[in-house]
Protein backbone atom coordinates (compact mmCIF):
# COMPACT_ATOMS: atom_id res chain seq x y z
CA UNK A 1 0.00 0.00 0.00
CA UNK A 2 2.82 2.45 0.83
CA UNK A 3 4.48 1.80 -2.54
CA UNK A 4 1.25 2.66 -4.32
CA UNK A 5 0.92 5.90 -2.36
CA UNK A 6 4.44 7.02 -3.23
CA UNK A 7 3.93 6.21 -6.89
CA UNK A 8 0.89 8.47 -7.13
CA UNK A 9 2.24 11.22 -4.88
CA UNK A 10 3.75 13.21 -7.78
CA UNK A 11 0.82 12.77 -10.14
CA UNK A 12 -0.08 16.44 -9.98
CA UNK A 13 1.66 19.42 -11.47
CA UNK A 14 2.09 21.22 -8.12
CA UNK A 15 1.47 20.68 -4.42
CA UNK A 16 -0.86 23.65 -4.01
CA UNK A 17 -2.14 26.68 -5.88
CA UNK A 18 -3.76 29.98 -4.99
CA UNK A 19 -6.68 31.35 -6.99
CA UNK A 20 -8.00 34.90 -6.57
CA UNK A 21 -11.16 36.21 -8.22
CA UNK A 22 -13.38 39.28 -7.96
CA UNK A 23 -16.98 39.13 -6.80
CA UNK A 24 -19.47 39.04 -9.66
CA UNK A 25 -17.62 36.70 -12.01
CA UNK A 26 -19.79 34.02 -13.59
CA UNK A 27 -17.45 31.22 -12.56
CA UNK A 28 -13.96 30.38 -11.34
CA UNK A 29 -11.76 27.42 -12.23
CA UNK A 30 -9.93 25.51 -9.53
CA UNK A 31 -6.97 24.09 -11.49
CA UNK A 32 -5.70 20.56 -11.14
CA UNK A 33 -3.72 18.89 -13.93
CA UNK A 34 -1.97 15.52 -13.82
CA UNK A 35 1.31 14.74 -15.56
CA UNK A 36 0.76 11.01 -16.04
CA UNK A 37 -2.19 8.89 -17.15
CA UNK A 38 -4.68 7.63 -14.56
CA UNK A 39 -6.24 4.21 -14.28
CA UNK A 40 -9.74 4.06 -15.75
CA UNK A 41 -11.31 3.20 -12.43
CA UNK A 42 -9.77 6.13 -10.59
CA UNK A 43 -12.19 8.14 -8.46
CA UNK A 44 -11.73 11.90 -8.08
CA UNK A 45 -13.36 13.84 -5.26
CA UNK A 46 -12.65 16.67 -2.85
CA UNK A 47 -12.50 16.81 0.93
CA UNK A 48 -16.02 18.18 1.49
CA UNK A 49 -17.67 16.42 -1.43
CA UNK A 50 -17.89 19.44 -3.66
CA UNK A 51 -17.79 17.18 -6.73
CA UNK A 52 -17.30 13.47 -7.41
CA UNK A 53 -16.31 11.84 -10.72
CA UNK A 54 -16.33 8.06 -10.99
CA UNK A 55 -16.99 5.36 -13.59
CA UNK A 56 -16.84 7.85 -16.44
CA UNK A 57 -19.43 10.32 -15.15
CA UNK A 58 -20.25 12.80 -12.40
CA UNK A 59 -21.84 11.47 -9.21
CA UNK A 60 -24.09 14.35 -8.18
CA UNK A 61 -25.95 12.35 -5.53
CA UNK A 62 -22.76 12.38 -3.44
CA UNK A 63 -22.40 16.14 -3.72
CA UNK A 64 -23.01 18.50 -0.79
CA UNK A 65 -26.24 20.48 -1.30
CA UNK A 66 -24.38 23.81 -1.04
CA UNK A 67 -22.70 23.05 -4.38
CA UNK A 68 -25.68 21.55 -6.25
CA UNK A 69 -25.87 22.89 -9.79
CA UNK A 70 -22.72 24.97 -9.33
CA UNK A 71 -19.86 22.64 -10.28
CA UNK A 72 -18.62 21.22 -13.55
CA UNK A 73 -15.65 19.16 -14.72
CA UNK A 74 -14.28 18.76 -18.22
CA UNK A 75 -15.42 15.79 -20.26
CA UNK A 76 -13.11 12.79 -20.07
CA UNK A 77 -10.96 14.34 -17.31
CA UNK A 78 -8.93 11.17 -16.82
CA UNK A 79 -8.14 10.80 -20.51
CA UNK A 80 -6.92 14.39 -20.85
CA UNK A 81 -5.49 14.46 -17.31
CA UNK A 82 -7.23 17.75 -16.52
CA UNK A 83 -9.13 17.47 -13.24
CA UNK A 84 -9.86 21.19 -12.95
CA UNK A 85 -13.20 22.08 -11.38
CA UNK A 86 -15.39 25.00 -12.46
CA UNK A 87 -17.32 26.61 -9.60
CA UNK A 88 -20.21 28.79 -10.78
CA UNK A 89 -21.35 32.04 -9.15
CA UNK A 90 -18.72 32.11 -6.39
CA UNK A 91 -19.40 34.16 -3.26
CA UNK A 92 -17.42 34.93 -0.13
CA UNK A 93 -18.93 31.79 1.42
CA UNK A 94 -16.83 29.83 -1.08
CA UNK A 95 -13.57 31.22 0.30
CA UNK A 96 -11.90 28.05 1.44
CA UNK A 97 -9.19 25.48 0.87
CA UNK A 98 -10.21 22.87 -1.70
CA UNK A 99 -8.50 19.49 -1.78
CA UNK A 100 -8.63 17.09 -4.71
CA UNK A 101 -8.42 13.52 -3.46
CA UNK A 102 -7.77 10.73 -5.93
CA UNK A 103 -8.84 7.25 -4.91
CA UNK A 104 -7.68 4.18 -6.78
CA UNK A 105 -10.23 1.38 -6.94
CA UNK A 106 -7.93 -1.03 -8.70
CA UNK A 107 -8.28 -3.23 -5.66
CA UNK A 108 -12.04 -3.78 -5.60
CA UNK A 109 -11.97 -4.69 -1.91
CA UNK A 110 -10.80 -1.28 -0.74
CA UNK A 111 -10.08 2.19 -2.11
CA UNK A 112 -6.77 3.82 -1.29
CA UNK A 113 -5.87 7.50 -1.31
CA UNK A 114 -3.29 7.99 -4.03
CA UNK A 115 -2.66 11.71 -3.81
CA UNK A 116 -4.13 15.04 -2.81
CA UNK A 117 -3.92 18.46 -4.44
CA UNK A 118 -4.73 21.68 -2.59
CA UNK A 119 -6.20 24.87 -4.09
CA UNK A 120 -6.76 28.04 -2.05
CA UNK A 121 -9.68 30.17 -3.28
CA UNK A 122 -9.91 33.84 -2.30
CA UNK A 123 -12.90 35.90 -3.46
CA UNK A 124 -12.36 39.64 -3.42
CA UNK A 125 -15.51 41.51 -2.33
CA UNK A 126 -15.63 45.29 -2.95
CA UNK A 127 -16.17 47.43 0.12
CA UNK A 128 -18.03 50.68 0.73
CA UNK A 129 -17.72 52.79 3.87
CA UNK A 130 -20.20 55.15 5.47
CA UNK A 131 -20.57 57.01 8.76
CA UNK A 132 -23.47 56.05 10.96
CA UNK A 133 -26.13 58.74 10.74
CA UNK A 134 -25.67 59.55 7.05
CA UNK A 135 -28.85 59.95 5.02
CA UNK A 136 -28.07 57.00 2.72
CA UNK A 137 -25.40 54.79 1.18
CA UNK A 138 -25.23 53.30 -2.32
CA UNK A 139 -24.43 49.59 -2.61
CA UNK A 140 -23.01 49.36 -6.16
CA UNK A 141 -23.87 46.60 -8.61
CA UNK A 142 -23.46 47.16 -12.35
CA UNK A 143 -23.37 44.83 -15.31
CA UNK A 144 -22.81 45.08 -19.05
CA UNK A 145 -24.90 41.98 -19.73
CA UNK A 146 -28.13 42.32 -21.68
CA UNK A 147 -30.71 41.50 -19.03
CA UNK A 148 -34.05 39.97 -20.06
CA UNK A 149 -37.13 42.09 -19.41
CA UNK A 150 -38.59 39.36 -17.21
CA UNK A 151 -35.49 39.20 -15.02
CA UNK A 152 -35.88 39.09 -11.24
CA UNK A 153 -33.42 41.17 -9.22
CA UNK A 154 -32.98 40.42 -5.53
CA UNK A 155 -30.77 41.83 -2.81
CA UNK A 156 -30.03 39.70 0.27
CA UNK A 157 -28.02 40.15 3.43
CA UNK A 158 -25.69 37.52 4.85
CA UNK A 159 -28.46 36.00 6.97
CA UNK A 160 -30.65 35.38 3.90
CA UNK A 161 -33.00 38.22 4.78
CA UNK A 162 -34.52 39.78 1.69
CA UNK A 163 -33.38 43.39 1.40
CA UNK A 164 -35.11 44.31 -1.87
CA UNK A 165 -36.75 42.65 -4.86
CA UNK A 166 -37.61 43.93 -8.34
CA UNK A 167 -39.69 41.93 -10.82
CA UNK A 168 -42.21 42.54 -13.60
CA UNK A 169 -41.26 46.19 -13.88
CA UNK A 170 -41.76 47.17 -10.24
CA UNK A 171 -40.60 46.62 -6.67
CA UNK A 172 -41.94 43.51 -4.93
CA UNK A 173 -41.54 44.20 -1.23
CA UNK A 174 -44.10 41.88 0.36
CA UNK A 175 -41.39 39.53 1.65
CA UNK A 176 -38.88 42.25 2.49
CA UNK A 177 -37.16 41.93 5.85
CA UNK A 178 -38.72 44.13 8.52
CA UNK A 179 -35.49 45.96 9.26
CA UNK A 180 -35.32 47.17 5.64
CA UNK A 181 -38.90 48.46 5.35
CA UNK A 182 -39.04 51.96 3.80
CA UNK A 183 -35.24 52.08 3.69
CA UNK A 184 -34.35 50.74 0.24
CA UNK A 185 -34.56 52.11 -3.27
CA UNK A 186 -33.49 50.83 -6.68
CA UNK A 187 -33.31 52.48 -10.11
CA UNK A 188 -36.46 52.29 -12.22
CA UNK A 189 -34.58 51.75 -15.51
CA UNK A 190 -32.18 49.17 -14.10
CA UNK A 191 -32.80 46.58 -16.85
CA UNK A 192 -31.96 49.10 -19.58
CA UNK A 193 -28.92 50.63 -17.90
CA UNK A 194 -27.59 47.54 -16.13
CA UNK A 195 -27.26 49.58 -12.93
CA UNK A 196 -28.69 47.35 -10.21
CA UNK A 197 -27.25 49.41 -7.36
CA UNK A 198 -29.28 49.64 -4.17
CA UNK A 199 -29.71 52.73 -2.00
CA UNK A 200 -29.93 51.95 1.72
CA UNK A 201 -31.31 54.82 3.79
CA UNK A 202 -30.27 55.81 7.31
CA UNK A 203 -27.45 53.25 7.69
CA UNK A 204 -26.37 52.27 11.19
CA UNK A 205 -23.72 49.89 12.47
CA UNK A 206 -26.41 47.20 12.54
CA UNK A 207 -26.34 47.32 8.73
CA UNK A 208 -22.66 46.40 8.47
CA UNK A 209 -22.80 43.21 6.41
CA UNK A 210 -22.05 41.55 3.08
CA UNK A 211 -24.91 42.09 0.64
CA UNK A 212 -25.58 39.93 -2.40
CA UNK A 213 -27.33 40.99 -5.60
CA UNK A 214 -28.68 38.18 -7.78
CA UNK A 215 -30.37 38.21 -11.17
CA UNK A 216 -32.49 35.26 -12.31
CA UNK A 217 -34.31 34.66 -15.58
CA UNK A 218 -37.92 33.49 -15.95
CA UNK A 219 -36.91 29.85 -15.43
CA UNK A 220 -35.26 30.76 -12.14
CA UNK A 221 -31.73 30.21 -13.44
CA UNK A 222 -29.19 32.49 -11.83
CA UNK A 223 -27.45 34.57 -14.51
CA UNK A 224 -25.63 37.08 -12.32
CA UNK A 225 -24.42 37.35 -8.74
CA UNK A 226 -22.39 40.15 -7.18
CA UNK A 227 -21.51 41.05 -3.61
CA UNK A 228 -20.52 44.18 -1.74
CA UNK A 229 -19.42 44.63 1.86
CA UNK A 230 -20.80 47.55 3.84
CA UNK A 231 -18.68 49.01 6.63
CA UNK A 232 -20.40 51.47 8.96
CA UNK A 233 -18.34 53.71 11.20
CA UNK A 234 -19.71 54.89 14.53
CA UNK A 235 -22.52 53.76 16.78
CA UNK A 236 -26.18 53.63 15.89
CA UNK A 237 -27.18 54.60 19.41
CA UNK A 238 -25.76 55.06 22.87
CA UNK A 239 -26.97 54.95 26.42
CA UNK A 240 -25.95 57.40 29.12
CA UNK A 241 -26.23 56.27 32.71
CA UNK A 242 -26.14 58.88 35.43
CA UNK A 243 -25.70 57.96 39.05
CA UNK A 244 -27.44 60.18 41.51
From TrEMBL:
<dbReference type="InterPro" id="IPR007110">
    <property type="entry name" value="Ig-like_dom"/>
</dbReference>
<protein>
    <recommendedName>
        <fullName>Ig-like domain-containing protein</fullName>
    </recommendedName>
</protein>
<dbReference type="GO" id="GO:0016020">
    <property type="term" value="C:membrane"/>
</dbReference>
<keyword id="KW-0472">Membrane</keyword>
<dbReference type="InterPro" id="IPR036179">
    <property type="entry name" value="Ig-like_dom_sf"/>
</dbReference>
<keyword id="KW-0393">Immunoglobulin domain</keyword>
<feature type="domain" description="Ig-like">
    <location>
        <begin position="116"/>
        <end position="229"/>
    </location>
</feature>
<dbReference type="InterPro" id="IPR013783">
    <property type="entry name" value="Ig-like_fold"/>
</dbReference>
<dbReference type="InterPro" id="IPR050504">
    <property type="entry name" value="IgSF_BTN/MOG"/>
</dbReference>
